[in-house]
Amino acid sequence: MPLLSDIAEEARLTALSLADYASDIVDPTVRLGVTGLSRAGKTVFITSLVHNLTKGGRLPLFSAFSSGRIASAALRPQPDDAVPRFDYETHLAALTGGGDVETRHWPDSTRHISELRIALNFESETFFGRNLGRGTLNLDIVDYPGEWLLDLSLLELTYAQWSAKAVAQSRTKGRSKIAAPFHALLKTLDPAADENETQAREAAAAFTSYLRAAREERYALSALPPGRFLMPGDLEGSPALTFAPLDIAPDARAVRGSLHAMMERRYEAYLSTLVRPFFRDHFARLDRQIVLVDLLQALNAGPSAVSDLETALADILSAFRPGRNSWLSRILARRVDKIVFAATKADHLHHTNHDRLEALLAHIAGRAISRADFAGAATDVVALASVRATREATVNRGGDALDCIVGVPQEGQTVAGETYDGKTEIALFPGDLPNDPRKVMADPTHALSAPEGVSEAEWEAFRFLRFRPPLLNGPNDVLPHIRLDRVLEFLLSDRLA
Ligand code: GDP
Known about the structure:
By secondary structure, the chain is α/β, with parallel strands linked by helices. The protein has 3 domains: 7-144 and 282-388 and 479-496, P-loop containing nucleotide triphosphate hydrolases (Rossmann fold), CATH 3.40.50; 156-272, no CATH class; 391-463, no CATH class. Helices cover 39% and strands 15% of the residues. The relative contact order is 0.14. Guanosine-5'-diphosphate binds at residues 36, 38-44, 106, 109-110, 344-345, 347-348, 385-387, 389, 466-467. Guanosine-5'-diphosphate (GDP) binds at residues 36, 38-44, 106, 109-110, 344-345, 347-348, 385-387, 389, 466-467.
C-alpha cells in the first residue's frame, strides 16, 4: 500500500518528469550522473571531460567528435535553479595553474551535489538526420557524492534495525580496532535514560570519527551509511545529522522521552529531509551514470579494502536496480540505461598494466553485478586517467629493463628519507598487476609486488606517492588523459547518431 506521502511524491515527480520530457522535445538532453566515493576522482574527471570537449582535446575513440560531426561544444547556464553549478573555471585554474603553471595543483574535491550543462552541436550520421539540419544535445553533468547512494539501504530499516546492524558491523574484524573509541563511549550510554543533547552530540561525533578513520588511506575501507556523516553537504552540525546507533536489539522499542527515542526521531528526520529528497529530486532523473572507483588505493591498502569495495559496489548498484515494490522503484521517473564503472588514476601504472586493471575491476564489478541481481542497463568497465600526470620510460636496473612511470611528486611527500620539492621529476617502477584477476581476489596483498632489491617499507611509501598535475604546453594545450574518449563513446554515441 503506497503511503499518502508517497502519492504526493509521485505526483510531484510526475510534474518534474513531464517538465523534463517537455524540455527534452525542444532540446534533447542526457543527464549524466558522475559519482564515486570521496577522492575517487569525480572533480578531476568532470573538469577534464569539459576541458577536452570544449577545447578540442585528443579524443580519437569518441567517433562523433573525432570525425568532426560535433561542430561545437559550449558551456550553457545549468537548468536547475536550486542546484549549485559545478565550479569548472576554478577547478580548471587549479589544475593548470591559471596564469602561473608553478601554482598548479589538484582542485578541491566534491563535497555536495552540483551540475553543469554543455551543449553539443552536431551533424547527424544518417542521411535523413542530415537533411533535418544540425541537432543539439544538452549534456547535463550531475556530480554527487557516492556516499549518498549508500543511504538507500536505510529507507528499508527502522532505527533499531539500523542500530543493531551498524554496531555489529563496527565489531567485525578489520573495523573493531578503528571503532574502539566509539565502543568505549557506547558502553556509557543507556538507551532508556532521559534524552540528552550532549550525549547525542558526543555519540554522533565518535561514530563519525570511526566512519571517517575507516576511510583513511591506510585502511581504505569503503564507506558505510549514513552517507552524510562523511559528506554532510551544507548541513554539518544540524540535528538531522546529530544521532548515532545505540547498542540495542533490532526489535527494541523506544521509551518516550528517552535517548533512544531522541535518536530515533533524528534518524527519521535524516531520512525524510535529506535522503528521500535527494533520490526523488536528483537521482530519479538521471539517464546515464559513471561510477568512479579508486581501485588502486584499495589494492594498496590490502585484502579488507578490496572485499569492502566489492560490497560497496554491490550496494551502489542496487540503487540502479531497486526491488519492484521498493519506495525508489515507485518514484523513478526513468531508468538509467547505461552505466560505466571506471578505475581511476590509471596513470599510476605503466600502460602495459591498464588492461589488467580493467580486467580486475570487471571481475569485482561483475561479482557485484550478479550479487545485486542486476540486469537491464548496458554496462562497461574501463581503466582511465582523467588527467594524466605521468609519462613512461624504460629504466635499467641491474641489467633488467623496467617499465617505469615518470612524474613530479607533490611538494612535501617523503619517500625513503627524501622529501620532494614539487619540482623534481622521478622515475618509479609502479609494479605489475597479475594477469589473472582471480589471483588478486585470492590474495590481494600481492596485487602490486615490489621489484627485487626494493625493501617492503620503501615500496609501501612509493605506492602511496602523489604526483602533481601535468605541465601544459601553453594556454591552448588541453589536459592529457587516458581512455576518456572510450567512456564518452559508450555513454553518448547513440544520442549523437
Ligand atoms: P572527488 O572526491 O571524487 O571529487 O575526487 P577528486 O577529483 O578531487 O580527486 C581526488 C584526488 O585524486 C586528486 O586530488 C588527485 O590527487 C587524485 N586524482 C584524481 N584523478 C586523477 C588522475 O587522473 N590522475 C592522477 N594522477 N591523480 C588523480
